[in-house]
Amino acid sequence: MELYNSGINQANSHNLNGAIESFTQAIELFPTFEKAYFNRGSVKFQLKDYKNAILDFDKAVEINPDSTNAHFLRGRSYYELGDSEAALKDFNRATEIDPTNADAYYYKGTIYFLDNKFKEAIAEYDNAIKNKPDYAYAFNDRGSAKKQLNDIKGAIKDYEKALMVDGKLSFVHNNLGSAYRANGEYELAIKSYSKALFLKEDYFIAYNNRGLAKLEKGDYKDAIKDFDETIMLNPKYAYAFNNRASAKYKLKDYQGAVADCDKAISLDKNYAAAYLNRGIAYEMLRKEDKACEDWNKAAELGLKNGKAFSQQICN
What is the pLDDT of residues 210-250, one digit of tens each? Predict the structure, then answer.
């Protein structure tokens, strides 16, 4: 037990390699010491050595099949390695053993969310929140699942609940802003994005999204300022160039719109919306051949509007 306790103390002191050594020595003396395997696996998980962590959790589960923590962390390891099927199996087992394991429900929800199974995700987030009523991340992600199902009011309520738990989560303010924007409530959206930026000054996505809210509201010059900030923070963010092009188009700066679309396309050769928008700007500059070329490219990339413009004007 002395070696095991030494491993625990070293892990708590963030001497992770020393902890692994102590747990290994404990295992050599006691080959069926389940907690030593589990804790060594936990330390390897912290070191992002997921494959070797799984080997330790395998051994822990072999010795104690009802170890909910070993199943959960093995599931987390599989999740980090991109093996969602194996991860889900472990998370399911973890909640079978311990039906109050909120984190296991949360990760099940995340797997379903990433697989576009939003109703199933919501059910798992419900379980997570039932067992942990102050689970801000679960409220946030349930809100995002509801937004995907076009339940905007439900999404707003969940984002607000997440912020009641922790008002300093910048990404939740950003998500709330996007829900308001989807609902056409632009002033509230701008206010939420501004809160996100107050909490995280370099949050380029929030700048971009606030710019979109201003663009949709008709404040084109202010929108451009936000897109400028986005680009300054992340010069490779193609969406901001395309969005700024849309604002410049609204201000009849067609050449500027073309230049921004050029940049967006240089960053992402398959950016269909940028081809569409550049085509529209070219058409206003009376360069119909170039416009048609861009619309055809947008259509080739699967954008229906590109095909519609091409059929209406080019043929």
Answer: 999 999 999 999 999 999 999 999 999 999 999 999 999 99
The angle formed by the CA atoms of residues 280, 282 and 286, to the nearest 5 degrees, is 115
Measured in degrees and rounded to the nearest 5, phi and psi for residue 47 equal -85, 5
Amino acid at 137: Y
pLDDT at residue 57 is higher than 90: yes
Residue that is written with structure tokens 């700007």 in the block: 281
Q: Which two tokens stand for residue 216?
A: 């949709």
Domains of the chain: residue spans and CATH = 1-98 (1.25.40.10)
- DSSP-derived secondary structure letter, 169: -
193 pLDDT band, cuts 50/70/90, is very high
The Cα–Cα gap between 47 and 77 comes to: 11
Whole-number Cα distances in Å, 165 to 66, 136, 315: 32, 6, 57
- The H or E element containing residue 186 is helix 186-199
CA dist., res. 78 & res. 162, Å (int):
27
Query: How far is 107 from 77, CA to CA, in rounded Å?
Result: 12
- Residue 178 Ramachandran class (φ > 0 left, ψ -120 to 50 alpha, else beta): alpha
Instruction: Tell me which residue of 302, 233, 232, 290 sits closest to 261, measured CA to CA.
Output: 290
